[in-house]
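Archive entry: two folds, one per protein. Generate the first.
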Amino acid sequence: MDSVGRTIPKRFLSLVLLFLALILFAAAPRYASPYHIIQLTSIFMYIVLTVSWAVFSGPTQYMSLASAAFFGIGIYISAILGKVLFLPVVIGLGGLISFLLALLVGLSSLRLRGMYFTIFTFGLSELIRHFVLWWEVNETGTVGRWVVGVNPKVVYYVMLIIVLMTLAAAYIIKRSKFGLALRSIGESEEAADHIGINVNAVKIITFAISTFFMGAAGAIMATRWTYIDPSIAFNPLFSFMPVLMAIFGGIGHIYGQILGAAVLTLLADVLLTKFPYYYMLLYGIILVSVIVFLPQGVIGLEGKVKGLWKGELAK
């Protein structure tokens, strides 16, 4: 009874905090400056990329570096179709085409493991980037496209909705039998296969679901940038940053992934503004320090603090 009694208030408190945060973010455009709205939109973007990446790569331990490919697909869908279709349709198509591409990629690549899968996914992003560049140079005669701009507040609210959808999907998958199957694959793929889990189907479907939100986020973010080209849309940072953010915050916890995305986005902004010439050096030192001294991420500090506190009480 005690454990149940403690669990219910904790869940209730989490729901209350989530509801208050939602109200705060929903009201932010009324009171925050345009700069802070853009900054929050960037944080939302990286939360979507980080949580989406961790839905698949976290439990399975398959290190995907293809986030830039699916995010960039959404960006180009918005650039190509934004002038002829309504914004919700464009966003939906950005997610859907990313999902379908991920299904094809999953069928061909998820039999690979370890560094081979990592190299393949990074190569996929680079392949798509160079193919789009070749297509624009040789077929359209130009490099880059103008995108139909949208009011920054509209972009903000759409990104907030995509964040909520991503978090809901991540939570449902993690708590479902699907999530249990993913963790089993991460611990021992052979054992998971032997107990009757359709390993390939679980990996492919989860991988594809996670990319839907990346593509949708790319489609709406393109409207904020107004001009895009292959180097912007398929920037390798969109593949590497979600990995670093998840590791920084705590790859095994959704709130850790959110924290990592928010903190590193803000940190990058501050360092780039205050120390433009030493930005990458300082950023790298901070990331390496966290990975070395906090292998479980910033969230791992909670366990260490509790351990120290219990040790002091025992004395």
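Generate the second and append.
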Amino acid sequence: MDGQTVVVTGANSGLGFEATRAFARKGAHVVMACRSEERGADAKRTIRGDESAAESHRGSLEVAPLDLADLDSVRAFADEFRASHDDLHVLCNNAGVMAIPRRETEDGFEMQFGVNHLGHFALTGLLLDCLRETSGETRVVTQSSGVHERGEMDFEDLHGEQSYDEWAAYAQSKLANVLFAYELQRRLDAADATDVTSVACHPGFAATNLQLRGPEMRGSRVRLAAMKATNALLAQSAEAGALPMLYAATASDLSGGEYVGPGGLLNMRGPPEIQRSSDASYDRETAERLWTVSEELTGVTVDLDARVAAE
């Protein structure tokens, strides 16, 4: 990946951290898009501290602030990126929150739907010109979850204002990730934009801090202890969990519109492979409706023929 520029959201921990480290080892310049610049800087120092290892880091790292729960921050990140970078080869829509008590973003969206889907929808739209103007093939990789299979799009109550269940909200946001990835590819194909491809992926069950946030926010010591024990006993490492994202970002046998995940036990661990996502994720009418709603909510209109316009 020498000479390639990659943006990874949520790069300071978990899957994003491991993917960032792998991209850097292969020569990429990685923009670590993090909500906390301090934690991003700590992660950068940790990766750089590994340079004494046998596999040296040929690439470079840059930390940039990005809060997906604030559309102003998303726009500021995109503006700064466009002003300071000529190319964008891979955009990894990785950051997320999982099964947390109901919260709202700065723009009044339910937090899981707002961060996991709407923030990344807006970011992708605002950076799409960069991807299209970069020489050679470029990619958008959107991180979903096997939990998307339980998801349903509730367009009458997208933000859980009438009824909220933390796991149902998470599943909805992860289904939205796959619907978005597939719809983006269909629109790229329709516009004959063969220079950009869109791929969805999921990490299986990987031990990261993502699973701990919900119990921590609820102040539940029992749930926190149970989740830590489950991670220790059943989960694969974050490094292994990042492999589907890395495969989705770089594999030459992908042409766009695929769903990549671990191919081992119950698709929770093992080497990455192309898989089938839920039946609901292939519903084109739902995907088109989600796209329209996402444009209305974010103010980012993605017109692949006229390029991108942001209100």
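Annotation attached to the second fold: The longest helix spans residues 166-190. The beta strands are 5-9, 29-34, 60-65, 90-93, 138-143, 196-201, 259-262, 272-275, 300-303, 307-310.
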